């Protein structure tokens, strides 16, 4: 197995998230992205320009309309990535996709993932391996969470990581769900809640919530309980 230099810190983070009270770095909280980490990834796979690209991503993930899809979400994804990186086929591609997958988050926005993938392509240009750039594009598009399901191992990992907050303790999951709701202040509960319930039910109806054994063992049971509980709440109260 490839050695992952971040694995210990990732494990510590997951234990903290599963056992402690929500922190300021939770959904909607203030958190700084790791410039040095991004620069190392960009330098070895793409080349020059890491500083400018990082500044752009940092600005995007701190846009004022975001409540869940923030820098905190990216840091959470990277911590979960660290736990499983040595099980992936191409960890650098998965990590790059995680950095970019919510870079564009406009509301309403039917093509945010596609626009995020195009942003990566534009900033990478012709630098780095074409195969790597194409794979990152595919991995970003996997986070639409639409059919068809993930085909490759790395697609499965990026999807499981993106949805890993479903496996948090109930109060933290509910906090994150409310943060998502807060990103749609213009949509009334009577419209938002049925759509959200339909999306949650579609996730719960999948043959397995997680596509990798690694995250299935850690998140599946709690994620399904959270989905069932939130759907019941939406049905009974019509709000989060």
Tell me about this structure.
With 240 residues, this protein is an all-alpha fold. It has one domain. Helices cover 62% and strands 0% of the residues. Helix 7 crosses helix 8. It is globular and about 55 Å long. The N and C termini lie far apart (43 Å). The N terminus is likely disordered.
Protein topology:
Blueprint (H helix, E strand, L loop, with lengths): L6 H13 L15 H11 L4 H12 L9 H14 L6 H10 L11 H13 L5 H13 L10 H10 L7 H13 L6 H16 L8 H25 L3
- Global geometry: globular
Biggest beta sheet attributes? none
Question: What's the helix-strand series?
Answer: HHHHHHHHHHH
Taken together, the total number of domains comes to 1
Helix content: 55-70%
Low-pLDDT segments, ≥5 res: 1-26
Total strands: the figure is: 0
The residue-averaged pLDDT reads 88
Q: Mind telling me the C-alpha Rg?
A: 17 Å
Distance between the termini: 43 Å
Quaternary state, please?
single chain
By secondary-structure content and strand pairing, the structural class works out as mainly alpha
- Put simply, the count of helices is 11
The portion of residues forming beta strands comes to under 5%
């Amino acid at each position: 197995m490839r050695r992952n230099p971040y694995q210990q810190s990732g494990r510590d983070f997951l234990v903290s998230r599963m056992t402690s009270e929500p922190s300021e770095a939770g959904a909607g909280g203030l958190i700084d992205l790791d410039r040095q980490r991004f620069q190392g990834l960009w330098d070895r796979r793409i080349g020059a320009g890491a500083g400018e690209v990082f500044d752009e991503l940092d600005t995007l993930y701190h846009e004022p309309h975001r409540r869940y899809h923030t820098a905190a979400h990216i840091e959470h994804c990277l911590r979960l990535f660290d736990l499983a990186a040595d099980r992936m086929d191409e960890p650098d591609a998965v990590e790059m996709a995680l950095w970019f997958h919510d870079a564009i988050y406009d509301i309403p926005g039917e093509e945010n993932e596609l626009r995020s993938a195009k942003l990566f392509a534009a900033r990478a240009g012709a630098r780095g391996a074409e195969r790597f750039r194409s794979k990152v594009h595919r991995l970003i598009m996997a986070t639409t969470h639409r059919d068809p399901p993930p085909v490759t191992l790395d697609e499965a990992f990026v999807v499981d990581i993106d949805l890993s907050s479903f496996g948090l303790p109930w109060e933290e999951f509910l906090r994150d769900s409310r943060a998502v709701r807060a990103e749609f202040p213009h949509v009334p509960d009577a419209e938002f809640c049925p759509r959200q319930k339909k999306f949650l039910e579609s996730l719960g109806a999948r043959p397995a919530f997680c596509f990798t054994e690694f995250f299935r063992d850690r998140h599946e049971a709690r994620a399904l309980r959270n989905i069932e509980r939130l759907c019941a709440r939406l049905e009974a109260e019509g709000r989060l």
